[in-house]
């Protein structure tokens, strides 16, 4: 159990950090805005109070430490997903990781953003209420492929 937990922790942090570095590269190269983890923290706090869906999370009541909460849940989610990967792929994958299981998980997890987080924050299903939903969707997929690469890379490092 301890082996599962520490591997999930390291692999999840690796995948999530890769996603964050990708966001920094996109900002530097193309001027894209960085994710607003404060709004994610606000959303998670409101979920804890019983409200999942908002018309606009920016208009919801602010909560204390929402930026810290957002960063915490960002990494906690990555660690949780890594735990799913380690559990489903099994001990053989942990000893000799391959990219395909990480990629499949990375692509599947796009759905959580499209069908839970984005509508919960007021962006609609798969960002359908945003003026540029296809751009957002493409960036979501790319970020989750980078997440998968980070999961795989971290797994290789500790194999």
Q: How would you summarize what this structure contains?
A:
This protein is mainly alpha-helical.
Uncertain segments are none
What is the CA-atom radius of gyration, in angstroms? 16 Å
Kindly state the number of beta strands: 0
Helix run count: 5
Oligomeric status: single chain
Quick one: biggest sheet?
Answer: none
Overall shape: globular
Element order, helices and strands? HHHHH
Structural class: mainly alpha
Question: How would you summarize the topology of this molecule?
Answer:
Blueprint: H1 2-30, H2 37-48, H3 66-95, H4 99-121, H5 133-158
Describe the structure.
- The protein has 159 residues and is an all-alpha fold.
- It has one domain.
- The chain is 75% helix and 0% strand.
- Helix 4 packs across helix 5 (133-158).
- The mean pLDDT is 97.
Summary keywords:
about 160 residues, mainly alpha, about 75% helix, about 0% strand, globular
């Amino acid at each position: 159990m301890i082996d599962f937990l520490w591997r999930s922790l390291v692999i999840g942090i690796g995948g999530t950090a890769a996603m964050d570095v990708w966001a920094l590269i996109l900002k530097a190269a193309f001027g894209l805005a960085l994710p607003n983890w404060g709004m994610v923290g606000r959303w998670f706090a409101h979920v804890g109070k019983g409200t999942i869906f908002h018309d606009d999370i920016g208009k919801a009541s602010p909560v204390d430490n929402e930026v810290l909460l957002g960063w915490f849940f960002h990494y906690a989610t990555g660690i949780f997903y890594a735990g799913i990967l380690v559990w489903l792929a099994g001990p053989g994958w942990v000893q000799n990781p391959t990219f395909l299981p990480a990629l499949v998980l990375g692509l599947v997890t796009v759905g959580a953003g499209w069908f839970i987080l984005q509508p919960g924050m007021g962006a609609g299903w798969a960002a359908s209420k945003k003026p540029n939903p296809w751009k957002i969707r493409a960036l979501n997929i790319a970020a989750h492929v980078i997440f998968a690469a980070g999961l795989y890379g971290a797994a290789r490092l500790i194999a």
